[in-house]
Amino acid sequence: MTGAGGMLGRDVLTELAADPDAEVTARTRSGLDITDPEAVRAAVAGHHVVVNCAAWTDVDRAEQEEEAATAVNGAAVRHLASACADAGAVLLHVSTDYVFSGDAGYPYTEDARTGPLNAYGRGKLVGERAVAKLLPRTGYTVRTAWLYGTHGRNFVATMLELAGRRETLDVVADQYGQPTWSGALARQLGELGRAALAGRAPAGIYHGTAAGRTTWFGLARETYRLSGLDPERIRPVGSEAFPRPAVRPAFGVLGHGAWPRAGVPCQPRWQEQLSEALDTSRFAELAAAARIPG
């Protein structure tokens, strides 16, 4: 597995550790340069499944450094796919809703037309196409969105941290998506890997996001409500209140039609995931600290 030190990677490791049949090789960024094709080929040899959780995730910085971002999110994925083809291995590659333009009024299907608005999305699309071309029978691209988790910086953690320092918070209310807990996605990736090895899951694109939809404003309010904080402290604003170098899609809701064909359950609703995530130690500690007066 690549990206083993990241937010999702660490949850995938936890998921696989509970599988008595899984023997896991975990590679962090310092342990494997995925932009080096020879290093990738050597790392993949002898493995049955490769889970690629490594990625350039700084969306705004990618606007200024698109070539470098695409080297990680695009060219490096090509190296992984090529190495998996040579080794006869399955590849599970994590991608993003940012490959879409965000102007649909209905959930994007797995085969919907892509049209990224920013450098990050363009680079991730390069990676998706490499998987489809080089691994037509053993390549799986799992698009996710609005990911948050116990490890690393993310929106939910930031909202709880700010609750202890600010009386009110302005949060964007005109972007729609599916807040997805990395723990839920890790479970789904584990199930997909097992289904792929058993020959039950058709290769191709899957959408690994929570059911339902909301805005960042809605996510922030629900985070506060479930954490025993006053949701009225969250105030809605438009995207123009927070100008960013990279344009964000206004609508990133994804459909989940591929999972039943693989015999893998779709993820629970985002509210259910959030409730489970907030019970984990890190989020519970942040919420408790935010509730302390002064």
From TrEMBL:
It holds the Pfam family RmlD_sub_bind. It is an enzyme of class 1 (oxidoreductase). The keyword Cytoplasm does not apply. Signal peptide: none annotated. Pathway: Carbohydrate biosynthesis; dTDP-L-rhamnose biosynthesis. Catalyzes the reduction of dTDP-6-deoxy-L-lyxo-4-hexulose to yield dTDP-L-rhamnose. This is dTDP-4-dehydrorhamnose reductase. It comes from Streptomyces lannensis. The gene is rfbD.
